[in-house]
Design brief:
It contains 8 helices and 4 strands, in the order ααβαβαβαβααα. Strands 1-4-2-3 form a 4-stranded mixed sheet, with helices on both faces.
């Protein structure tokens, strides 16, 4: 390049002009005033909060939570278990017998046999069993054998635990070591508040005690 001559270079492009957007003012309707929420005491409805830590669940919820752990296997799970055993046996590994896990036992006949053999630890019966004669004998049998029992709302709930539409009664026979304390608390609460107070809360008839009308009629002078 010859001396004295400057190299011609490209000029940098100018920055684009920034165009400010015109802010459109929102027209407010004077008929509707803006009222921000006030969550103070006696004001607006309080927002939803997770109060699980502060809630003391009723015994029925604790019972269902415990029973949820001991649901029997479904037909599909049983099929997979038997298929896995067949594959092991075909591979020459031998058929090793496995111990049956503790599960809920369902059905009136099954539960009655467990109570008679003193194998049931807790019997749970649905309150809306129809006809009632299916389970009407169970409380007397449980009291005679000394097995704790209780009633729970909804045969559909019990049916859900054992993979059926409805179920009249279920029984706990065994639980794992980590759940023995929870079952003992439930049994103690049931005995204290319900089954242990049978003589106190059941209906009384007779006893040679006349009603007020009969007493007034007898004592009325003739």
């Amino acid at each position: 390049m010859p001396k004295g001559k400057k190299a011609k270079g490209r000029k940098a492009a100018l920055a684009p002009a920034v165009v400010k957007k015109q802010e459109t003012k929102k027209v407010e309707n004077p008929m509707f005033e803006k009222r921000p929420k006030n969550s103070g005491i006696g004001q607006d409805v309080q927002p939803k909060r997770d109060l699980t830590y502060f809630v003391k669940w009723p015994r029925s919820i604790e019972l269902l939570k415990l029973a949820q752990k001991y649901r029997p296997e479904t037909k599909q799970e049983k099929k997979w278990r038997l298929l896995a055993q067949a594959k092991k046996k075909a591979a020459g590994k031998g058929d090793v017998p496995t111990k049956r896990p503790p599960v809920l036992r369902a059905g009136v006949n099954t539960v009655t046999a467990l109570v008679e053999n003193k194998k049931a630890q807790l019997v749970v019966t649905a309150h809306d069993t129809d006809p009632i004669k299916l389970v009407v004998f169970l409380p007397a049998l449980c009291r005679k054998i000394g097995v704790p029992y209780c009633f729970i709302k909804g045969k559909a709930r019990l049916g859900h635990l054992v993979h059926r539409k409805t179920c009249t009664t279920v029984a706990f026979t065994q639980v794992n070591s980590e759940d023995k304390g929870a079952l003992a608390k439930l049994v103690e609460a049931i005995r204290t508040k319900y089954s242990g107070r049978y003589d106190e809360i059941h209906c009384h008839w007779g006893g040679n005690v006349l009603g007020p009308k009969s007493v007034a009629r007898i004592t009325k002078p003739r």
